[in-house]
From TrEMBL:
Domain of life: Eukaryota
Membrane topology classification: Multi-pass membrane protein
Protein name: Wax synthase domain-containing protein
Any single GO BP term: lipid metabolic process
Keyword Cell cycle: no
Segments traversing the membrane: 6-24, 36-58, 157-178, 235-259, 265-285, 297-317
Name of one Pfam family that matches: MBOAT_2
GO cellular component, one term: membrane
InterPro entries associated with the record: Wax_synthase, Wax_synthase_dom, Wax_synthase_Magnoliopsida
Family label: Belongs to the wax synthase family.
GO molecular function: O-acyltransferase activity
Domain Wax synthase, chain residue ranges per copy: 187-273
Compartments where located: Membrane
């Protein structure tokens, strides 16, 4: 555990140095191809840097923030686009690295407002909202501990729940630090996805919104621009949707590999591409009916949730089990508890030694 923490510090120290270089490049090189080639080595370094980490709790978020989020924002920055590009005044370095690595909106707020928002929780949710989700984890934990005696499908369903709650809680912690320490507003990443009434609603407005916000300018818009010239603007969104989901699937494969070091099965890519196709079909149907017909909200919510859960259990969760993320998570939690115990024990012994020496 101690070695992993040292690697974690090394990785993020290196990332900060690389981003400092990009910040300088942005000041002296105009947007365009030359800036792109100046930043390209950094993008490659950030892509491989998380391979120095081997845990879910440290390696997973780091892979997501650096290999995906930071790199895509730097690609936009190279051509004068995205949140890192501001004119006429460039971002200060603290804001630059924060915006590069985290899913945040640039917004300064008074200290009282910060304290008030922090007390409400991440994404403008109350502590009760997150508290209830922690209770769900606590209630279902005994089922997981007895998973050998539970139907595999039920265990997989539990993993889906754990994945959602775990992601939201981790991002909530990041949000709290961003608000309190940086005075930056973190974009809400989850908006109760189980209430989605369509795949458009689920992926576009409720699930992991940081991914949507970064894929839109880096993948969707360029593909849509090209498609509009080839097939017309009416259907140009469809190739953009498919390309966005394909890229999302590939990036998930990379992150899963960084964490588990297991050869990709490409089921994740199939999962996201299937949802891309389904979303494209949904768009076509909506255009055909032109908003004149829509199922009842309860029905649409049930159908959407059922489709997401069934396809996730079919294509998304098997790679999770294949990489043994559940085993890794449990092992890391135990290692962390033991690490903290060792620190406390060592500190107590040191204090006792000092007391005896002084006596």
């Amino acid at each position: 555990m101690e070695g992993e923490i040292k690697n974690f510090i090394m990785v993020w120290a290196s990332a900060l140095l690389l981003l400092w270089y990009c910040h300088i490049v942005g000041k002296i090189i105009s947007k365009g191809v030359i800036r792109f080639f100046a930043i390209l080595p950094v993008i490659l370094f950030l892509f491989f840097l998380p391979l120095n980490l081997f845990t879910i709790w440290l390696g997973g978020p780091t892979s997501f923030f650096l290999s995906w989020l930071a790199n895509f924002k730097l690609l936009l920055f190279a051509f004068g686009q995205g949140p890192l590009s501001t004119s006429p005044v460039p971002l200060s370095f603290p804001y630059f690295i924060s915006l590069a690595c985290l899913p945040i909106k640039f917004q300064q707020v008074p200290q009282k407002s910060v304290d008030k928002e922090v007390s409400k929780g991440s994404g403008h949710k109350s502590p009760l909202n997150h508290g209830l989700k922690i209770v769900v984890l606590a209630i279902t934990a005994p089922i997981y501990l007895q998973k050998d005696h539970v139907h595999p499908k039920m265990v997989m369903l539990l993993y889906c729940v754990y994945l959602y709650i775990g992601l939201e809680l981790v991002l909530a912690v990041v949000a709290a630090f961003a608000r309190a320490g940086l005075r930056l507003e973190l974009e809400p990443q989850f908006h109760e996805p189980y209430l989605a009434t369509s795949l458009q609603d689920f992926w576009g407005r409720r699930w992991n919104l940081m991914v949507t916000s970064i894929l839109h300018p880096t993948v969707y818009n360029p593909v849509m621009s090209i498609s509009s010239r080839l097939i017309g603007r009416k259907w140009a969104a469809l190739p953009g949707v498919l390309a966005s989901f394909l890229v999302s699937g590939i990036m998930h494969e990379i992150i899963f590999y960084n964490i588990g070091r297991k050869k990709p099965t490409w089921e994740l890519t199939c999962f996201f591409f299937l949802h891309g196709i389904s979303l494209a079909i949904e768009i076509v149907i909506k255009k055909a009916f032109n908003g004149k017909w829509q199922p009842a909200t309860v029905v649409s919510r049930l159908l959407t949730l059922a489709f997401v859960v069934v396809t996730a259990m079919w294509l998304f969760m098997p790679p999770v089990l294949y990489a043994e993320f559940d085993v890794m998570t449990r092992r890391e939690c135990i290692a962390f508890v033991n690490f903290v115990k060792d620190i406390i024990t060592t500190d107590s012994r040191f204090k006792s030694f000092i007391t005896v020496t002084e006596g």
